[in-house]
Design a protein that fits this description.
With 455 residues, the chain is of the alpha/beta class. It folds into three domains: 135 residues, Methylthiotransferase, N-terminal domain (Rossmann fold); 244 residues, tm_1862 like domain (pyruvate-formate lyase- activating enzyme), CATH 3.80.30.20; 59 residues, OB fold (Dihydrolipoamide Acetyltransferase, E2P) (Beta Barrel), CATH 2.40.50.140. It is 33% helix and 24% strand. It has a six-stranded parallel sheet with strand order 2-1-3-6-7-8, sandwiched between helices. A five-stranded mixed β-barrel has the order 19-20-21-25-24. α7 packs parallel to α8 and α11 packs parallel to α12. Bound molecules: 5'-deoxyadenosine (5AD) and iron/sulfur cluster.
Length: 455
């Protein structure tokens, strides 16, 4: 840490709370990089911090509710703490800020700054303004300039496993989803900017890079020679750098192409794992969701990818209780899960999001039906996840250790298939293995994790 602007004294504390997707995790790291030259050093605690930023998620109602309860807690702290002769500052960033900027300021006037995912590159200016102003600063434009052109090249690094945003926004407009409204239109960064950032992450210790995008496999960035490059080619270029593992997320079934499948087949650094949300196994629901693919399209993509890379594992997202979902529609989803056999998955009850087409559809599903369907769906998914994990007992697999466990010496990491793994004794020949890839023999598994010993 702190390869950043070492000549600047970090005499102010910044605390960032991050909810939601990996894109928010990436944005939070960039906000810290942006504020480092102003003398802000990262703190693990909100208490005593000069500036607290909530980087929020709007994808489901619960995620937004959490933000307001956190703001209430922070307001109490703000009233008690005076940092450098002024109350601690509070900023709200991310997709709730984008969607509900004015309401946040009205409901929580003690907030100093509200800014969206496309304007946080102006954070240093906003902080200066907020210090001068008494009232709050709101910046939720969709500016013409791309924030990526204004983000600092100095980075504190993200550790052994780093995120790199390559594509942002979404033009798909699934009827349940706020992302096209909060993150804006699809945009792909140029290849050279991505490679330069990847190199900086590697220089600051990254062994694994995850290429991020709301629709990452729709990536179509300009290469140096002016040609348009897809995700498969981009991965090929990143693989030429001194990085050990490459991942990407999140993909859309409609944007799968042969080049990406070939990348999985040919590039060893590309991990054999694909997160490919399907949302539902019913064609009626997929149509109502405006997913632009059918159940069979999805199954065909899975089959073709497995043909190219037989050991690949799949993960997905599911929504239960979308308006008008019948028992038969739900059964179609369960059957799709049985047909694919997922290594892991995320599943959610449909949550009405204001302003999205599905929120005003007739046929909203009662909460108790959603709850029962989610339980049944998760039972099936968890049993698949457990069997997948059980297949590794006794095997030796390479693991990148990227987190410390709660107990002394305990290390946590990820397998090539994205399983969470821990070892009690994270040393080999007395050497700490944090940030390294080591072979681990698996001796115990649960639904959510693997345990083993370094060999
Ligand atoms: N309700 C429930 N889940 C949603 N998701 C997106 N919007 C909603 C919503 N309104 C889920 C989808 C998506 C994931 C990131 O969040 O499954 O793939
Ligand atoms: Fe949302 Fe659909 Fe776009 Fe994914 S593809 S971000 S679910 S609109």
């Amino acid at each position: 840490m702190n390869a950043v602007t070492p000549h600047i004294k970090k005499d102010k504390k910044l605390h960032i709370m991050t909810w939601g997707c990996q894109m928010n995790v990436y944005d939070s790291a960039k906000m810290a990089d942006l504020l480092a030259p102003l003398g802000f050093g990262l703190s693990d605690e909100a208490q005593g911090a000069d500036l607290v930023i909530l980087n929020t998620c709007h994808i489901r109602e619960k995620a937004a509710d959490k933000m307001f309860s956190e703001l209430g807690r922070l307001h109490k702290q703000q009233k008690q703490e005076t940092v450098a002769n002024r109350p601690k500052m509070i900023g709200v960033a991310g997709c709730v800020a984008q969607a509900e900027g004015e309401q946040i300021m009205a409901r929580a006037p003690y907030v100093d700054m509200v800014f969206g995912p496309q304007t946080y590159h102006r954070l240093p200016e906003m902080v200066a303004k907020a210090v001068r102003n008494k009232g709050g600063v709101i910046d939720t434009d969709f500016p013409i300039e791309s924030k990526f052109d204004f983000l600092p090249t100095e980075t504190a690094g993200q550790g052994p496993s780093a995120f790199l945003s390559v594509q942002e926004g979404c033009d798909k407009f699934c009827t349940f989803c706020v992302v096209p409204y909060t993150r804006g239109a699809e945009y792909s960064r140029p290849v050279s900017a991505i490679l330069a950032e990847a190199q900086r992450l590697i220089d600051s210790g990254a062994k694994e890079i995850t290429l991020l995008g709301q629709n990452v496999n729709a990536y179509h960035g300009a290469a140096e020679n002016g040609q348009i490059c897809g995700l498969g080619q981009l991965i090929e270029a990143v693989a030429k750098l001194d990085v050990t593992r490459i991942r990407y997320t999140t993909s859309h079934p409609k944007d799968m192409d042969d080049a990406l499948m070939a990348a999985h087949r040919d590039i060893e650094k590309l991990m054999p794992f694909m997160h490919l949300p399907v949302q539902s196994g019913s064609n009626i629901m997929l149509e109502a969701m405006n997913r632009k693919h059918t159940r069979d399209d999805y199954l065909r993509v899975i089959e073709a990818t497995r043909k190219a890379t037989p050991h690949i594992a799949f993960s997905s997202d599911f929504i239960v209780g979308f308006p008008n979902e019948s028992d038969k529609d739900f059964e179609d989803t369960l059957q799709l899960i049985r047909d694919v056999n997922f290594a892991q998955a995320y599943s959610f009850k449909y949550s009405e999001r204001p302003g999205t087409p599905a929120a005003s559809m007739a046929g909203q599903i009662p909460e108790d039906v959603k709850t029962a369907r989610l339980a049944a769906l998760q039972e099936l998914l968890f049993s698949q996840q457990r069997s997948f994990n059980e297949g590794f007992i006794g095997k030796t697999i390479p693991v990148l250790f990227d987190r410390h466990g709660k107990l002394d010496g305990q290390l946590l990491g990820r397998t090539p298939h994205m399983q969470s793994l821990y070892v009690q004794d994270g040393t080999r020949n007395g050497q700490g293995m944090f940030g390294q890839i080591a072979n681990v023999k698996i001796n115990h598994v649960t639904t959510n994790s693997l345990e083993g010993v370094i060999v």
